[in-house]
Give the backbone structure.
Amino acid sequence: MCEALGLDFYRPDGADATDLALRVFHRDSPVPLSDVLPMLERMGLRVMTESPYELRPKAAGGAAADSIWLHDITLICRDGGGLDLPRIKPIFEEAFAAIWSGRAEADRFNRLV
């Protein structure tokens, strides 16, 4: 799992403090949910839904470019509390990317993020 990901951890408009979402962007192939789910659960989140979308941008000259897969994942905080999202967002995204790339372990300590 060394491929680079694009991430956007956010709170949907009008959502409660416990409702969160994560957009995962990946080139060429979808990200297996079974790879992402354990990481999110170890970070203290519960996955509620996941919607994958294949995006096919056009390259210069109208030729098809590489596909980009967007996974829109809805989450809730496992402990029922809210998060200070503006403070946590960059920390969470960096931790997730580090775990995905193998620079950090995927274990129960991830909840400390």
About this structure: The radius of gyration is 15 Å. The longest strand covers residues 45-55. The helical segments are 33-42, 85-101.
